[in-house]
Amino acid sequence: MSNKRNSFFSVATYYPVWAGINPDEVLSSQSNAFGYFAAVNLVMNKYNGMVPSTFVDWTGQQWDAPNTWPPHQYIILEALNALPSNLTANALPTPGAGQSAYDLIPSGQLNLTESQLPGQLLHGAQALQNVTATGPGSDINTLNGMVVNGGNSSSGEGWASMLGRELACHWRFNTRLTPMASQQRTQPHKQC
Asked: pLDDT, tens digit, for every residue of 74-89?
């Protein structure tokens, strides 16, 4: 065993916080706490779907993009809920002019450049790629500071609550599009 961090991002990143183990680096500041979850924000803005198990692109393996699993979404939601409120009460950070949600991710966290991220599934000639792979145009779900199918914001909603709402509402919206959705018994997020 080498005790080294893995060189690629996966949803296993959120397991420690979900299990009540908050890394000191996450607890050290609001900025670090958001940075830990910045990939969730990226997905809500860039993709029509859920947080993939990994961002490894189109290998055909069930654990790589674009695949995702409901337990992973639950773990992310619960990890967001497990953060201390003093770290999550501030507003959701937004990218600067000419930037995308990718620019909010701490350097080296994904170990991928923005152009190396998996493409957004589209129908037609542009299948398996984003309309725009990089820059502000790649945030295809951003509309007037909100995320499409991300529910309704509340006054004073902190960034963790906002990401949790967006993730829950994306999940609810996407499950309605699948044949299995009618068999799922879920409680919708109160603001979807």
From this structure: 999 999 999 999 999 9
Query: Is 11 in contact with 53 (CB distance < 8 Å)?
Result: yes
Count CA atoms closer than 13 A to 60's CA, side-chain side: 0
Residue type, 46: K
What pTM value is reported for the model? 0.81
Length of the chain: 192
What beta strand segments (E) does 135-191 contain? Answer: 142-143, 146-147
- Is the CB of residue 142 less than 8 Å from the CB of residue 47? no
Nearest Cα residue to 91 out of 36, 138, 158: 158
| Top mean-pLDDT range of 5-14, 139-148, 171-180 | 5-14
Quick check: 16 and 37 in contact, CB under 8 A? no
Tokens linked to 175 = 């499950």
CA angle 23, 95, 84 (to 5 degrees): 30
Burial per residue of 79-107, b for 16 or more beta-carbon CB atoms within 10 angstroms, e otherwise: bbebbeeebbeeebbebeeeebbbbbbee
Kindly report which listed range (35-44, 136-145, 176-185) carries the lowest average pLDDT score.
Answer: 176-185
Question: E-strand spans in the chain?
Answer: 142-143, 146-147
